[in-house]
Amino acid sequence: MALVAYVPQLQTEPGRVMADTKTYLTIDPGRLLSRAWSMWDPHLANGVVTHQNIGYLWPMGPWFWVLDHLGSPMWVAQRLWFGTIIAAAAYGVVWLLRTFEWDGPEVWVAALVYALSPYLLSVGQRISVLLLPFAALPWMIGLVARGLRSGGWRHPAAFALLVATVGSVNLTSLVLAGLGPVLYLLWAVSVRQARPRAAVALSARIGALTVLVNAWWLAGLWVQSGYGIDILRYTETARVVSLASTAVEVLRGLGYWFFYGGDKLGLWMEPARGYAEDLRLLGLSLLFPLVALTGAAVARFRERSFFLVLLVVGTLVSVGAHPWDDPTALGRAVESVLDSDRGLALRSLPRALPLVALAVAVLVAAAVAVLARRRPRLRWGAVALVMLAAVVNLPPLWQRALVPENLARDEALPSYWVEAARALDAQGSATRVLEVPGLDFATYRWGNTVDPVLPGLMDRPDLYRELIPYATPPSADLLVALDHRLQERTAEPGQLAAIARLMSVGSVVARGDTQWERYSTPRPRLVWQALSTEPGLDPPVGFGPRLANDAARRATQFDELFLQTPATKDEPPPVGIFGVQNAQEILRLQSAAAPIVVAGSGDGLVDAAAAGLLDGTELIRYTASTPDPAAVRASAGTDGVLLVTDSNRRRGQRWTTLRATAGFTMEAGTDLLAKDLTDNPLDVFGTSGDAARTVAVHRGGVHANATGYGNPFYFTPELRPANAIDGDPLTAWRTNAFLDARGQRLELRFDAPTRAGHLVLLQPITEARNRSITRVRLRFDDGAPLDVDLHEASNRLPGERIDFETRTFQQRSIEILADSAGVHDSYADLASEGFAEVMVGDEN
């Protein structure tokens, strides 16, 4: 088993490090550990209450720290880490089955099938720490089984120590894997393998010791939940997680959404293509659950019913609310839980997959055991065949591809980053470093690290924008406002330097070696040009060779920005440092006599800097940073300045991209007709209502709303519902690009009852579309629906007239029932659709 676990690992991509879990573990594990003990980290994001860093104190941080001090290359430490997870999972199964009094080679069949489950790839190639509960599951069940037999405190103590080893970084994975020992306890009582009193006593011992031993990281979760940003709101939604968790994929050992994703340069997980397109691999991966079900039917052993329960419960939990838009009765119940604030923490239900994998492995071994009893001469052949199939079912293992190219880099970082970090550290820690532009994830031309490398190379506080916000909402909002203008190329001279001073930034670092085309972030040459002409910044100091940073061939962007960039312009260095003139220190004293009181969000501060109203050296009293805005305004006194902006708007906000993150400004008290799980605005102003917000006011006696607009990835305010009633055929309400548009609805609400007998529908006419609406459902107030077919006339001026019985109504809705594209498995290439104008009667 050790050969299978370690040898393929050490033969895979020598010298190459994978972007796994936390990049800083392989850059400088000692620096990471020195920061992990504290829930407050002043080195990142203007200071941040950390989310999961405390969990790296054990075991992952010490693992890399020890091997680093022993002189091991980090790539070797990483391979040994992954191999140890495989070995621990395998030997855990062996120990569990020995506990259940199994013997013979079938034990090793179960061990290998479980340890080499495709679940290893589903999360392990990007976040291997999530595999720790997978490796611990058979051990946890075995400890419970032995604890029921022997009583006492030894096995509960071992259980608590095991939980401390495998659960400190991700509670969700631990809880879902922890269903295994809970189910065993219930099963043992139900089949009279254990007395209820013994089960209760064991549960009490395990619970008490587990809480005690794990209090160090549980306290960290409590601190973060109370004082940190609600990070779960800004990561993947429960709907996204459920998209791929079909029963078939779960039984194959897959089903985790991230495994199937990709971007412009390819899949996030390269092995996903084989499991989706190779019919041989598809058939083999389905063969294991089929054999397992056969084993469940023909085998006779004491714990058979337990593993059946494990299989069924694990499958049901992993499938969760799939399909989200049309769930089963059980799925609706799960969906209602996941849709709550507390339930969102359990949204990654496919992490219950270890339950399924363990049940499948044991039941496959049971099938082999039955065959061995009935045909003894076939025993060793069957054992060898199944074990070989388990290896073949994990192609990256024997193809030496467990380190995918799109997640790899050379162990030695580019020397220019190391030199730049030393130069920045040499300037002291009185001010921060600001890295620009923001990146969805850190992907460099020389490799993918996911996390930016600079924080792992220096001790100076670092500030940069990522896809997910950190720090307090007002602080994160200000950083988003600043970086958004760099992303959209709308920054004005003076903005960057002024806000940099306000955030105590002393050095601005231009990242010129990023793989900018992957997420459509700003192009290094244009960023360098903007920073070089930014007033308030010193001339730059460059590090590294000035080489062209061109887009990868498959993502070449020959567009207006390419044409605007002078061909003779010098290439920027891969790293450039711009000093901030008159930089303000992090810890400083300022007079409170004449503050600038700002009523508005980060956008208001950035725009004020552009207008020359502040240069970052003033004392700012910020309504977004206090629970009592009135007191802040009063603090201005007679010498202060009150600056009121319109930037606190009632609008949506998404975190799926760094660009186009804000929705259109809505009317007071209005939300979209359907809940958008991706819409999670930062709570910058606490509980302030519409009286303190900028809202839209629609005149003309009619108001438009809709179930959605644009596309699911980024906001497009230019496609807002009001465009359908603005009298301009060149604007339009459009919705559900890349999605099925059936069920999307536009609703018009009139201030006064309206009487009409016809309406005119005009679909968008300003650009080519690859689908158009062919059938709609009209509803007037709460009356009976009227289904209508649309023809080609609706696609050209003046639109298609639809006559109906004259009636009086105050609300009317138009629901899309069908379009010319029809029903597809994927709508990835389909544009949005909607209406440019909806005219009721003779007036709009």
Task: Give the overall average pLDDT.
Answer: 93
The fraction of residues in strands falls at 5-15%
The whole-angstrom Rg is: 30 Å
Helix content: 25-40%
Question: Would you report the number of β strands?
Answer: 24
Short description:
The chain is α+β, with helices and mostly antiparallel strands and 844 residues long.
Kindly describe this structure:
With 844 residues, the chain is of the alpha+beta class. The protein has 29 helices and 24 strands. The N and C termini lie far apart (74 Å). The model has no long low-confidence stretch (mean pLDDT 93).
Which helices and strands, and how do they pair?
Layout: H1 2-10, E1 16-18, H2 24-27, H3 29-36, E2 40-41, E3 48-49, H4 60-69, H5 74-99, H6 106-115, H7 119-124, H8 132-150, H9 154-166, H10 171-177, H11 179-190, H12 196-213, H13 215-227, H14 238-242, H15 247-252, E4 262-263, E5 266-267, H16 272-277, H17 279-298, H18 304-319, H19 329-338, H20 353-374, H21 379-392, H22 395-398, E6 408-410, H23 415-426, E7 432-436, E8 442-444, E9 447-450, E10 462-463, H24 473-488, H25 495-502, E11 505-511, H26 524-532, E12 541-543, H27 560-564, E13 575-579, E14 596-599, H28 602-610, E15 620-622, H29 629-634, E16 641-644, E17 702-706, E18 733-735, E19 745-762, E20 773-780, E21 786-789, E22 800-819, E23 833-835, E24 837-840
Parallel strand pairs: 7-10, 7-11, 14-15, 14-16
Antiparallel strand pairs: 1-6, 2-3, 4-5, 8-9, 11-13, 12-13, 17-19, 18-23, 19-22, 19-24, 20-21, 20-22
